[in-house]
Amino acid sequence: MMSIVPKPKATELSFEEVAAKYPQFPRLLLLKTDLQRRGVYYTKQALSKVDPVIHQLGGTHIFGTRDGILTQRPEALILRDGTSVITSPTPLEQNPYIVDFRDGRLVVMDGGVELEEVEYWTKPDYYNLTTSSGIPMSHVASARPQRIYLMPSRYCHFWTDNQGCLFCDIVNNLKQQKSELNLPPRLKPQDVAETIREALKEPGRFTAICLTSGSDFHGAEDFDAEVDYYIEILKAVGENFATPKFPSQLIATAFTEKQLERIYRETGLLSYTPDIEVLNERLFEWICPGKARWVGYQEWKRRMVRAVDIFGRGRVNTCIVAGVELAKPYGFNDEDAALQAVLAEAEDLASQGVSTVYTVWVPRPGSYLRGQKNASLEYYVRLALGLQELRQKYQLSIDHDDYRRCGNHPDSDLARI
Amino acid sequence: MSIIFSKELVELFAKKDTVKVLATTDAKGMPHVVVKESLQLNESNQLIYFELLESSQTNKNMVHSIWFNRPVAVALIGTGGESYQIKGKPVKSIVSGLLFRDYYVKIREQLGDVDLAAVWVIEPVEVIDQRFNIRSREEEIRHPYFKHLDRLAK
């Protein structure tokens, strides 16, 4: 049914070799990590088992897919331990895992070998509804198994000056989503309030709300426009809660203390995640030119540390696009050196109350770094173990960005035990 | 091959006054034993229980067990002297989806304003009748030396 899977390069350990070398790393999380690293390909049989009435189809992601197709495929997978696998459909020639339907079960295959039974995500009830202004609620908020994901603005103003992050395809994806799905580039608070209200009616479905957008440096002070908009949206979300604070996460630009105090004081937000993307100053300046120009690496770090005073220990973290520090031509040449540098910076942050999580770098076709290769599976395992060890060493909780509230970080999945 | 439960054991699971205990271990082997009233059988002859606290030690230990293929044990004690031990392995943690929603609604109807972290599914691998008269008979046959001689004296 499937093509022969090319073996990894001789210098790169196979899945089984990594599993044997790191027995302390759960096999299910190893599979998740590699599914994210290599992507998946759905067979016709697997796609025939997708029921649009029950299952959640893709389409409203902030980032694009590896094969450039937005819709009509399952949003993602869930493993039997409850682990979410957010991964992208990938062309066969790129050696993805195969999701197939065999003997009455949906399974992940590799090289003709069945590895695990998986399930598709279930569609939330509100996906069937539209707001009073006529927008499908699935276009207002996307869902993970337990998280409501709001992307209030899908435009990143760094792209205006050609200073978008090199791994990112947010604006190219927005263009595609606008033309193919008629997705609104900027949400209205009323649509958000109505969507959240409906989402909360589904018992036992959601445990957290996450907001993220592209950066917007406009305003009296840099990024005031972005801050004002988040406050507006968070207030609309908060209308639906009986408590002043609610489990929530803002993934945004590194704001000043004054801006963060405003957000914390005026909204129900509980946690803050300004993504630094790459933990190395030299590479930050190359890979994140907009962030480097408008904030700067050291200032980004300083603002994250100051945010701990506002949100509290364990409620401020940052995400890195793991593997991009190895991107050519300016990235690290070997994984050992990259790992050492990244973990040293992560420890500097952890010692000051800021936790680091990672997502697996996917060299998307709509990004500047398209066509490159991400890191080895062993690299991602070592990084996950290293980041979780730092959280344990500095006693940092990651509840707001864990396997359930997020599900996109193999390292914070480890915090379940 | 899956375990077939006796009628008595099935009934014991269903009785409200049966004491149901779940024993797990953490990553370092530290045991943890708690009463789990929600332990029951599902339609596939597997054990399930409702984990209400996501951060509980039991929940962490169950995650550790499903990740590293470590067994857990369940003890059932009935009011009529019935006593069983069931060893098994966690095979699934239901944390979302339609089935989870059904369980979530059900447990809140039963217990009021509680949360549901997971519904754990345990595949039984061994059932031991722990009633003393049964166990002592088994052991005497296996280990005829393991007794004091005065018990055998004329």
Give the distance, in angstroms, between the N- and C-terminal Cα atoms of chain B: 48 Å
| Shape label of chain B | elongated
Order of helices and strands of chain A: HHEHEEEEEEHEEHHEHEHEHHHEHEHH
Helix-strand pattern of chain B, N to C? HEEEEHEEHEH
Backbone CA Rg of chain B: 18 Å
- CATH names the topology of chain A as TIM Barrel
- CATH level 1 class label of chain A: Alpha Beta
Mean pLDDT of chain B: 96
CATH evolutionary superfamily of chain B: Electron Transport, Fmn-binding Protein, Chain A
Give the overall pLDDT of chain A as a whole number.
Answer: 93
Strand content of chain A: 5-15%
The percent range for helix content of chain B is 25-40%
CATH superfamily of chain A, called what? Aldolase class I
Task: Let me know the number of strands of chain A.
Answer: 14
Oligomer: heterodimer
Reported for the largest beta sheet of chain A, the result is: 5 strands, mixed
CATH architecture of chain A: Alpha-Beta Barrel
Low-confidence stretches of chain A: 1-7
Assigned CATH class of chain B: Mainly Beta
Radius of gyration of chain A over alpha carbons? 20 Å
